[in-house]
Design brief:
9 helices, 43% helix, single chain
Length: 251
């Protein structure tokens, strides 16, 4: 099979997953958008968390042109992306019990806020405890995960539970365990991970739904503009100033 055919197969696989999320998760996405709108209207703050590669879609909605200015990254040192050395340390930190509680206790999160937790497998201690502890603190929790992992793998948390078990709303990414969409002769295993594509799209769909719901309620959504269009910096300055008490990615 040629590299061109494989490229097309990957894109087709990603499109197929996106279509499934669109068709099968529309209700959950709308419910998550409603929770975000409810939180914004009530004066609450919005946080998003993901570890390892699950941090990529989380970062994509923070300080984002076309996105809500109120989205804040809940960062766990050493677990955000692959910038830690060695990179394998990030994976190890996801399995550390108690880390999520320490992060939440020292974060600005408080009752009435909302946290989105992104974890493909939803089986490691860090995302499970992040959702558990956030709800115990009085936050609403939206989970973005693959439900297939809960059916085909075992939880690594002492409770035996998964992320999905500790959320007010769960969006299923539909990604199969292993996160590899392709196989080919001469390749010793499956390859072609699509979870980031799907998670980013699903998260942006949630934010879009929330933005529309805020507008429908008569609330002007605090949407950021691109700094690369005329007037963008000035617009963003006004939005960031107006909502400065709910934005934690700037001093």
């Amino acid at each position: 099979m040629s590299e061109h055919q494989l490229a097309g197969q990957f894109l087709d696989a990603a499109i197929g997953l996106l279509q499934r999320v669109r068709d099968e998760e529309a209700g959950a996405i709308a419910a998550a958008g409603t929770l975000i709108a409810d939180t914004v209207v009530a004066g609450g703050r919005l946080f998003v968390f993901g570890a390892g590669h699950s941090s990529l879609p989380a970062q994509d909605v923070v300080y984002r042109a076309g996105g809500l200015a109120l989205m804040n990254l809940l960062s766990v040192p050493g677990a955000v992306g692959v910038d830690v050395m060695p990179a394998t340390l990030g994976s190890a930190l996801e399995r550390v019990d108690g880390l999520a509680g320490a992060v939440l206790d020292t974060s600005p999160a408080q009752p009435g806020d909302l946290l989105i937790v992104i974890s493909l497998s939803g089986r490691n201690s860090l995302p499970v405890e992040m959702a558990m502890n956030a709800r115990a603190l009085g936050l609403k929790v939206v989970g973005l995960t693959s439900l297939a992992y809960a059916e085909e793998t075992k939880s690594r948390h002492v409770s035996g539970t998964f992320l999905k078990d500790h959320c007010d709303v769960v969006i299923d990414s539909k990604v199969a365990p292993g996160d590899a969409e392709l196989s080919a002769e001469g390749v010793g295993g499956r390859f072609g991970p699509a979870s980031t594509v799907v998670a980013s799209a699903a998260l942006q769909a949630i934010v879009a739904s929330a933005t529309g719901e805020l507008a429908a309620r008569g609330v002007n959504p605090p949407v950021l503009r691109s700094g690369n269009v005329d007037g963008g910096h000035e617009w963003n300055g006004r939005v960031l100033a107006e909502y400065r008490d709910r934005i934690f990615f700037r001093y």
